[in-house]
Amino acid sequence: MSMFSRVFRHKSARTGRSFPPQGLRGYQLIGSDDLTGEGGHVEAAGEARHRQIAREIRNEIEAGRLRPGQKLPSTRALAEQFGVSVAPINDAMTILEEEGLVISRPRSGRMVSDTATPGAPRPRRGRPQVIYVGGYAGSGKTEFGRILARLTGWAMLDKDTITRAVVDTALVQLGSTVADRESPIYLDLVRPAEYECLAAAVRENVGCGVSVIATAPFIKEFGSEAWFRRTAVELDTMGADMEVVWIRCQPDSMHSYITRRGAARDSWKLANWGDYVSGINTAFEPPWQHTIITNDPDSPPLREQAQALIKSLMD
């Protein structure tokens, strides 16, 4: 593990085991003892899939995308959405019902529990805090950012939300497409402006004394110690502190997230998934003090990890 890394370990309420079972150095969960049976075979896909489905729905509830009292789609609609039979959906709903996040009512179907996301005391700090949350596409960084924002009341700044409409227009006007995230047009012309918009929004909030959660892939930025040094100095000059979070997620889990959201910007990745995955580093750690958050089927809920992060910042 990197000397820069701060890792939160939790115990599952259901199993009492610490997660992640194999530590955080790389892509270890698939093929670990938790997912392999006798002879080293990977656990049946259906068994792993229902936990991933439960996790995705849990994340949407805890991030506020699914609100207390909101009715969930029917079992068959969810099965179609996730591309599975109804059995994994029912198994996933059982997990969520046991956790108190979902309730079933006769003739009404399933809905989000009214007590699914209880409030929490909001932290207070003398200086504004900027939490940069990065991760590969589909890792769950926006969901984690939203959970942090709901727990703290801090500003939530997501790069895609802030810039998507302008980025899409710019790409088309420059002769590319809204799906382009790979060409020199995007990488050399559009991307720098996109990230500067996010940085400017962060500075505007900090200048008003408002703490910020900024979410984006940050692949280039988080790979540069010089970027961290410049940003830390800039924020310190403005009277703010910086925290760095990297979301780690299995490629299979990322693929599930990306497929479900159906964004045009992900079309190349989905069409060339093998090539895309071969080009990412699942063991990546930023060269700066940081916190690793894991978002896999057997990881602690993102809300628990967010609460642990907030507690560490307040101590």
Protein architecture, described:
- This protein is α/β, with parallel strands linked by helices and 315 residues long.
- Helix content is 45%, strand content 13%.
- It is built from twelve helices and ten strands.
- The protein has helices at 45-62, 75-82, 86-98, 141-152, 159-173, 184-207, 219-222, 225-237, 251-261, 267-271, 273-278, 302-314; strands spanning 5-7, 10-11, 18-19, 102-105, 109-112, 129-134, 155-158, 212-215, 241-248, 290-294.
- The strands form three sheets. Strands 1-10-9-6-8-7 form a six-stranded parallel sheet, with helices on both faces. It has a two-stranded antiparallel ribbon with strand order 2-3.
- A hairpin with a 3-residue loop joins β4 (102-105) and β5 (109-112).
- α5 (159-173) packs antiparallel against α6.
- The relative contact order is 0.18.
- Mean pLDDT is 83; it is low at 9-44.
Question: Would you spell out the secondary-structure blueprint of this structure?
Answer:
Blueprint: E1 5-7, E2 10-11, E3 18-19, H1 45-62, H2 75-82, H3 86-98, E4 102-105, E5 109-112, E6 129-134, H4 141-152, E7 155-158, H5 159-173, H6 184-207, E8 212-215, H7 219-222, H8 225-237, E9 241-248, H9 251-261, H10 267-271, H11 273-278, E10 290-294, H12 302-314
Parallel strand pairs: 1-10, 6-8, 6-9, 7-8, 9-10
Antiparallel strand pairs: 2-3, 4-5
Helix pairs in contact: 1-3, 2-3, 4-12, 5-6
- Envelope shape: globular
Q: What is the percentage of strand-forming residues?
A: 5-15%
Structural class: alpha/beta
CA gyration radius, whole angstroms: 20 Å
User: If helices are DSSP runs of H or I spanning 4 or more residues, what is the number of helices?
Assistant: 12
First and last CA, distance: 23 Å
How much is the average pLDDT?
Answer: 83
Count of beta strands: 10
Encode the helix/strand succession as letters: EEEHHHEEEHEHHEHHEHHHEH
Task: List unreliable stretches of 5+ residues.
Answer: 9-44
Helix content estimate: 40-55%
For the sheet with most strands, the description reads: 6 strands, parallel
